[in-house]
Every structure is written in C-alpha cells, then in structure tokens.
Design goal:
The protein is mainly α and 178 residues long. It is built from six helices and two strands. The protein has a two-stranded antiparallel ribbon with strand order 1-2. A hairpin with a 2-residue loop joins strand 1 (137-138) and strand 2. The longest helix has 35 residues, at 25-59. It is elongated, with a radius of gyration of 25 Å.
Length: 178
C-alpha cells in the first residue's frame, strides 16, 4: 500500500502493528457493560410501567369486579424501583459511580425486597397447590405459579443489573487507580 509520501520505507513489511497505539481494554469493556446495563435499565422500567398499567386497568369501571386483576401491595413496592433505574441511566454518561451505588441500594431494597415480599405473601398458596387444594386461577393457570414465574424473571433481571453495575464500578475504579 502506498502512502501519501511515496513508497513504503525499505525494510518494513507491516508486521510492526503491535507497537501502534490502541484503545485500553477497560474502555472497550466499559462501553460493552454500559450498553448491556442500558438494556437492563429499560427492561426494569418496562416491568415497572407494566405494574402501573395494572393499577390503572384495575381502577377502570369494567375491571373493578374482576378480583384477579387487583394489584397487591408488594407490586407497589416493586414499582418504586423505577426511580432506581432512572438513577442508573443518569449515572452512565458521566461515569458517576456514586449514583450507581445509590441505584444498587434502591434496587436491592425496592426491587428485590418487593419480589421477596411477593414470594413470601404467596407461600401459603404454593403449599395449598402442593397439597392439591384448589387455588385461584387466571386463564386456567394457578395464579401463584404466574406470580412465582414472574418473580423469578424479575429477580434474575435485577440481579443481572446489580452485578453489571458492580462490574462497571470496578472497571471505573481500575482506571482511577492508575
């Protein structure tokens, strides 16, 4: 390949590429983790908006007689975790690890705490289902199974978010220590 200044210098075969300047690995890793965290934050916001939609739909006149749609108190606590997701989104552009710490505490308290409250509040229904006692059903499926399946998915999302933020903070601290 010819350069602007004529032919290539004799004696160079192009194998000196490993001495050229490159992007530090923590920058590329930080970018990859940030993009994954943005998806987690958006998913958590969608879960919370789904809870808000449940509250709105349950308060509408045609649905007030349907006891299956009424939200439970633990879902309100879970909905508050939307603030943690917005805090996490605000922390990413400027690498603000303090905001990510606040996000982790809020998500652990409101998100994981809400899921744990929901699982604990439906424990008796699980035992009834296990013993063969009739339990409340939604579309032919026991409601407690739906609650537990959603709880597992939401818990996995929130733990992935917390572990991702911890990894990102360790990357940022690595950069500060050098």
């Amino acid at each position: 390949m010819a350069s602007r200044h004529g032919a290539r210098e004799p004696g160079t075969d192009g194998s000196d590429f490993k001495y050229r300047e490159s992007v530090a690995s923590q920058h590329t890793t930080s970018l990859a983790v940030k993009s994954r965290l943005k998806r987690y934050f958006v998913l958590n916001i969608l879960v919370c908006l789904g809870q808000v939609a449940l509250y709105v739909v349950s308060s509408l006149k045609p649905f007030t007689e349907a006891p299956k749609l009424h939200p439970e108190p633990w879902q309100a606590l879970l909905t508050v975790s939307i603030a943690a997701s917005f805090t996490g989104l605000a922390a990413l552009p400027k690498n603000r690890s303090g905001l990510l710490r606040i996000h982790n505490v809020a998500l652990a308290f409101f998100g994981i705490g809400g899921v744990a409250w929901g699982v604990a509040s439906h424990y008796e229904s699980v035992m009834d289902l296990w013993d063969g006692v009739s339990v409340e059903e939604v579309f032919g499926i026991p409601k407690v199974l739906l609650v537990y399946n959603m709880a597992v998915l939401i818990f996995a999302l929130q733990m992935s978010t917390i572990f991702g933020t911890r990894k990102l903070m360790s990357i940022w601290n690595y950069r500060k220590s050098k």
